[in-house]
Known about the structure:
9% of the residues lie in helices and 38% in strands. The chain has 111 residues and is mainly beta. The strands form 2 sheets. Strands 2-1-5 form a 3-stranded antiparallel beta sheet, with no helix packed on it. A hairpin with a 2-residue loop joins strand 3 (60-67) and strand 4 (70-76). The protein is elongated and about 50 Å long.
Amino acid sequence: MSTSNNTPDDLSGPAFAAQLAYDRYIPAAATPTDRPHGVELLVPHVNDAGKTVYTVYPCRVVYRGEVDGLHLWQAVNDRWMKPGDKLRVAYLPPRSEITGPPVAAPAVAHG
């Protein structure tokens, strides 16, 4: 790694791709006041009857920044999120996106 500008010496490897992805997240001047709410983590379980049921855990959202006019929010929970988990979002502000597990159902469209 180069120490002068914090970029990798090898520009073809996965470290370079990860650095490029990280650099795209530009911190915004301030966190928007219009925040997503009603964000829940749905964790699937198979019950005794063989049906998939979901345990619901509330999540909070943390503002990650802005990319190309799109506000990025990160879903945060005290559980490890793993493949198969889904998010349910009651309200998602315009020009916003939540990162984490895939969203189970579309949020209420506003704007």
